[in-house]
Each structure stands twice: as structure tokens, then as C-alpha cells.
Design brief:
There is one protein chain. The chain is an alpha/beta fold. The chain has 2 domains: 130 residues, Aspartate Aminotransferase, domain 1 (Alpha-Beta Complex); 264 residues, Aspartate Aminotransferase, domain 2, CATH 3.40.640.10. Helix content is 39%, strand content 11%. It is built from 13 helices and 12 strands. It has a 7-stranded mixed beta sheet with strand order 2-8-7-6-5-3-4, sandwiched between helices. It has a 3-stranded antiparallel beta sheet with strand order 9-10-12. The chain is globular. The two termini are 31 Å apart. The structure holds pyridoxal-5'-phosphate.
Amino acid sequence: MIYLDHAAATPVDLKVLEAMKPYFGVEFFNPSAAYLPAKKVAGEYEAAKGVIAHAIGAKASDLVITAGATEANNLAFTCISLDGSCRPFSSPTSQSSAGGPLHGRHPSMLYLETEHDSVRRTAESYGGEAIRVLPTGLIDLDDLKSKITDETEMISVSLANNELGAIQPLAEIAEIIRGVKFERLKRGVKRQLLLHSDASQALNLLDINVARLGVDLLTLNAAKVYGPKGVGALYVAHGVKLKPLVAGGGQENGLRSGTENVPGVIGFAKAVELAKEHLNGNRKKYAACRKILLSVLKDYELINKKHCLDSFVVVCFRGLDAERLIYLLEDKEIYVSTGAACAASKGVKSHVLKAIGLSDEEIAGSLRLTLGETNDEEQIREAARAINEVVISERERLKNA
Ligand code: PLP
């Protein structure tokens, strides 16, 4: 098979699996138990957190381990100090999908309109307002500036988008926030203004440092970096106050109760270590593969042209139905997607492609190909040729219909 959907899931690296194995067996102890073997496991769990934290320029104590990025994103939003004007977790249909002020008040949070649903839906339930993107998929900084008010407490912008791979200028956003905070200080406005970023797609493709990015909260996802599914982390800068989503035994500094997922975190740490080791090599490989893909493919429009992760290729075959292309390619054991796996499985049109101004016809004809460690250049040539064949046969079919 040729797998070109690494943004949806990555296979667990064999070295990661090996690192995890002992913690399902001989090292099974509950890290909170009082005896020595359990304390040893607790130490190894903390050390693994340290490895993950170090990769983003943070400390183990800055991380809250969660069951995936969805939970980390939800936890991040608890930094907003609700005063009864917004209802968290209200039905997404109870307000406009674009978000917006509730009851005439300014919303306390802003989010990029192209965010993953785990940010978008949560933001909507907090009454958040969407920030527009430009046709490149990058944040419209003027729109951001115009929407920050004295009531804004949090801004959520992903580091790299999961449908386009668009890399957002977080340091620039952080600079704008610093300016707003300075100005608020001068006027005696005490409200916090925090920057959250979902870096789920970027951890193995960009060199991430929380201080350089200027973020207060950062979401990580093991499942996208050849680690186990259902394991994530939220980086929380010193002094940022969150509220736990679940009550219980008080693990993770009281922010995420429940017995620690020791094998998951050990695997996450190994995956992060490998990601750092392969970062430059992989980037070069994906840039070369992207070039090959775009030179062999025929009769397409490239949607994500620049400022994006090298591993993301979004191409539109105008007039065709990308869903049909996916099924035809599946017959050749080539796996691609139309966008976010969770939206694709529900047959929902991509809000991301809509936000960058694509027409319904363009959205319907767009394929997302995401490269990864399972690919090599020969595979990419073969996949591109197979896509060409399928596209030609579909055009023929439509002509004769
Ligand atoms: N955020 C982004 C950008 C993603 O791509 C994904 C997964 O596709 C998530 C969050 C959710 O991750 P999980 O399903 O592991 O909770």
C-alpha cells in the first residue's frame, strides 16, 4: 500500500513500541503507590515528561498529560474566567457556526476560523469569535487586531493547520498580544490575555520552542508523531490558571485526575526523541517528495502554495468528486483524504477550504495528500501516476455520461 494520510494518523514507530512494552508488563505499577518498584515507575514517568517538555523548551512540571489533543485543547479553554455570560459545552447548533458576541457583550476569546473542530467547537461553546484567514490560509492579522477588546482573555491559533499545513506566524501574534497587554497596563485594565496554540501537526516538522513562539498554552499530540493514539499534552506557562475537566485522585497537579498512562507517556517521549533526531532529514525528504508529486501530477490546481508544512499537498481536480477519487485510489491500495478525518467520515464540507475562499466545486474536487515516514520517492511517483490514471478515467466517464 501507499499511505498518504499521515495528518490523520501515523503508525507507531517500532522503537516507540519497544520502549512502551515493559510498562504493560513487568513495570505495570501504579506510579502513585508507596513501594519502591512503583516509585521507580513514577520516576521514569516524570523523566519521560521531561523529554517531551525539553523538546519544546519547557520543564516536566509545565506539562499536563491528557488523553489526546482534543482533551488538551478543551483543558486549555478553562483558562477563561467565566462570569455566567457564556455557557461552556452548549450545543454547537445553539449559535452561529462563525461564533460571535453573546448577549451584546464582547466575546472573551478569539480563535482562527480554520481551527480543528476540537478547538472550534470548544471556542463556539465559550461564545468565541472567529478570526478570518487570508486566501493563503494564514491569519488575517488586521482582523485579529480589530477584534481584540478589553474583554479578550484568550486567543487560539494553531501552529500548523491540519488540512492545509499552513504555518501561522505565532511570534508575530505574540508580539501583537504583548503590545495590547502593555497598553492595557497603562490604562489599568487587569484582564489576562493568553495565547494558545494547537501544535498537533507540527511537533515532528517544526523546531518548536514555547518562549520563541510566545505561547502560554500549547497542545501536543503523540498520535501524529509516530507515538500512541489517545496521548497528548498541554504545556501551561507558569502562572496560568486552569480548571480540571474531571475530578478524581489529583494526578497531573490536580489538572488531570486518573491513573497515569505510563506506557503512553513513555512511548510519547520516545516518539518525540525520534522526531527531533529526524527533523531536518525528514523536512528535506518531504520537500523533495512534494516537488516530485507536483511535477508528476497532471491537470490540477495547487491549493497550499506556500507558508505550509512540506509534508502537506492539497490539490484540486476541478469538476471531479474527490470522494470518488479516494474510493478509486483505495482499489489500488493508495490511501488519501479530502481533509480532516473526523469531518471526512461524516461527509461534512471542509470549513478550512471554505474559509480560504474556495468554491463548492473546488472544495468537492480537492484531495489532501500528507507525506510521512512510510513514504519514499519511488512510492510518491507511483502514487502520482495512479492519481493521474484515476483522474483521466473519471474525466472520460463524465464526458461520456
Ligand atoms: N488538533 C489537530 C490540529 C489535529 O489534527 C487533531 C487530530 O486530527 C486533533 C487536534 C485531535 O487529536 P485527537 O483526536 O488525538 O484528540
